[in-house]
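User: Sequence recovery, please. Input:
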């Protein structure tokens, strides 16, 4: 008698991540200087590249192409957005300002944020590539898409550039989902900075739940007037649908996981989105020059698993992942790999962590998360529903 045939490894579409990318995004040259200032003080022999440089994304690209996760990835070519697509999130006046800046040879659009020759075409590619990634999910061609893009977008507001961001890629994708018939979209942003642009874009809407976990950095100037504090809950119909989770400096793997289980999971469960958008920045890692949180690959892997399970439970597995910050040229790529391993819900890690060694003190984050939970319970009606 023949032995029972061994079933082949599962190869359903949910077991792949569809990555959208276009190499034209490497042409956004942010220059050199003292960190992100573009300034040359004259007394330093070695000026560093702006943290948001193409090297970081080249490593993200290559680790997905040649790392152990590569068999789980399908590649798709991104495309530029057309101007009319941008008006779903940004005002025509703001878009015209950027078009004119490009025509004039570029300008500093706000502190640390440069529009140089090549930048505008890259920004259009980032926006269009994210829209294609979302459309792939909406059309049912695949459950999980990842837009590997730069320049990043989550600080860009409807009328204002901010924090290296020109166009709000995730915001445009959310609006596309709504315009395509989705009733509710949930955005979970784990970049170390407050996703203020996305929050502002949907601040008056109860159709988009924006949740941001970030370092408690507060406002950083005229381009970023928002504080990212718990009391920025949304306005009007949108009141209660912007949940800010500012975490103490040094919050690490266990603190982030605790915050997500205590605050993100119940909110998404009650909201029941039609599609989820997972906004990822590896600048919440322990080694990022632009953040003071302590996530390691293990933490990113755990977060990826939880987000995947939320998507499976509440949005029929439909999940768009959008790239934001992450400035350590090596570790950002490793942490991206770990995040996507988590999203794939693999039983064992594919890649070990080469550098995780900072200790974590959970005491502060547990206390802060408890007080945020109480604050939201007292003020956000939908969280208290059945
Ligand atoms: Zn960031």
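Assistant: Recovered sequence (386 residues):
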């Amino acid at each position: 008698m023949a032995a029972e045939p061994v079933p082949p490894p599962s190869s359903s579409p949910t077991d792949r991540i569809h990555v959208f990318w276009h190499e034209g995004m490497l042409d956004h040259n942010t220059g050199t200087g003292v960190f992100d200032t573009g300034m040359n003080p004259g007394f330093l022999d070695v000026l560093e590249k702006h943290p948001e440089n193409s090297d970081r994304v080249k490593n993200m690209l290559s680790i997905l192409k040649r790392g152990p996760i590569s068999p789980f990835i399908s590649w798709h070519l991104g495309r530029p957005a057309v101007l009319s697509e941008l008006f779903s999130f940004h005002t025509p006046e703001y878009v015209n300002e950027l078009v004119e800046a490009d025509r004039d040879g570029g300008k500093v659009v706000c502190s640390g944020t440069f529009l140089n020759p090549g930048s505008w075409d890259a920004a259009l590619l980032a926006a269009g590539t994210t829209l294609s990634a979302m459309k792939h999910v909406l059309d049912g061609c695949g459950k999980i898409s990842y837009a590997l893009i730069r320049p990043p977008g989550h600080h860009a507001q409807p009328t204002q550039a901010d924090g290296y961001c020109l166009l709000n890629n995730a915001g445009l994708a959310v609006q596309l989902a709504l315009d395509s018939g989705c009733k509710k979209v949930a955005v979970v942003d784990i970049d170390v900075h407050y996703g203020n642009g996305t929050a502002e874009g949907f601040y008056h809407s109860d159709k988009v739940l924006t949740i941001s976990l970030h370092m408690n950095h507060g406002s950083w100037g005229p381009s970023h007037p928002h504080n990212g504090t718990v009391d920025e809950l949304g306005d009007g119909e949108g009141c209660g649908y912007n949940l800010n989770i500012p975490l103490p400096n040094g919050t690490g793997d266990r603190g982030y996981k605790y915050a997500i289980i205590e605050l993100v999971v119940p909110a998404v469960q009650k909201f029941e989105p039609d599609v989820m958008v997972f906004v990822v920045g590896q600048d919440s890692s322990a080694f990022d020059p632009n953040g003071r949180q302590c996530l390691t690959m293990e933490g990113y892997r755990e977060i990826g698993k939880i987000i995947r399970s939320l998507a499976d439970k509440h949005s029929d597995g439909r999940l768009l992942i959008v790239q934001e910050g992450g400035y350590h040229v090596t570790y950002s790529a490793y942490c991206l790999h770990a995040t996507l391993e988590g999203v794939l819900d693999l039983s064992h890690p594919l890649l070990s962590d080469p550098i995780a060694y900072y200790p974590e003190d959970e005491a502060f984050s547990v206390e802060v998360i408890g007080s945020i939970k109480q604050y939201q319970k007292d003020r956000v009606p939908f969280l208290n529903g059945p």
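Residues 13-33+51-384 form a domain with the Arginase; Chain A fold (CATH 3.40.800.20).
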